[in-house]
Design a protein that fits this description.
It is a single chain. By secondary structure, the protein is an alpha+beta fold. It is built from five helices and eleven strands, in the order αββαββαββαββαβββ. It is 28% helix and 35% strand. It is globular, with a radius of gyration of 17 Å. The two termini are 31 Å apart.
């Protein structure tokens, strides 16, 4: 994300793209990460432009994968996915990630996240567990570029000069570390200019 951001000359409306309104997703959430919250607040203060919708601190998340549309599976099937994931993650241990390198795409601004290896391993575990519980649905895509968004663009054809200049002032900020001790199965709703989600199951990484 960081490298791609500097090649952009225009931003585009993230909310203008087609997309499902409600779905089930695998998320990492960051309720107990004060250092990350402070970093996000510092960066959001610098990019508080009218063309960006800022992600609230309690909405910060890292998407590991989409499970299904809301209409595609029942509450019992959601419970089955959670149970399968809990069994699969019993051998997974907690790990730390580093959040930094602010950048983004034409539609969003966010942080690159490293290392990717434990994130990819956890995602693959969830992907296989989800597929085992829901063999009749299309599996999660294998493409994955871990990132944590802090703002979404709400306007088309915005020159990137102001965003580039603001992000340039933030490049010296030190990255922060977040401990990953579990994963959340969430119900996601895409609203007019925001995402709203609620966790329906939390899976620990106990090993």
């Amino acid at each position: 994300m960081a490298d791609q951001f500097w090649q952009l000359d225009r931003l585009h409306n993230h909310w203008g793209r087609p997309g499902e309104r409600r779905s089930w997703q695998w998320y990492l959430t960051f309720e107990d990460c004060p250092d990350l919250h402070a970093l996000v607040a510092r960066c959001q203060a610098a990019v508080a432009f009218p063309f960006y919708d800022l992600v609230p601190v309690d909405g910060l998340h890292l998407t590991l994968g989409r499970i299904a549309r809301s209409s595609e599976i029942s509450a019992d099937q959601v419970s089955a996915v959670a149970a399968a994931a809990a069994r699969a993650c019993a051998a997974q241990g907690p790990f730390d990630i580093t959040v930094g390198a602010l950048g983004g795409t034409g539609g969003a601004l966010g942080f690159a996240v490293e290392p990717t290896e434990p994130l990819c391993q956890l995602r693959e575990t969830l992907r296989l567990a989800t597929r085992a519980a829901l063999p009749g649905l299309p599996p999660m895509t294998r493409h994955f570029e871990p990132h944590l968004s802090l703002a979404y663009c709400n306007t088309d054809d915005v020159p990137t000069a102001r965003a580039h200049a603001a992000v340039e002032t933030l490049r010296a900020l030190a990255p922060v570390t977040a401990s990953i001790t579990g994963v959340a199965l969430v119900h996601l709703e895409r609203r007019e200019r925001a995402y709203a989600w609620r966790p329906v199951a939390r899976i620990s990484l106990p090993a």
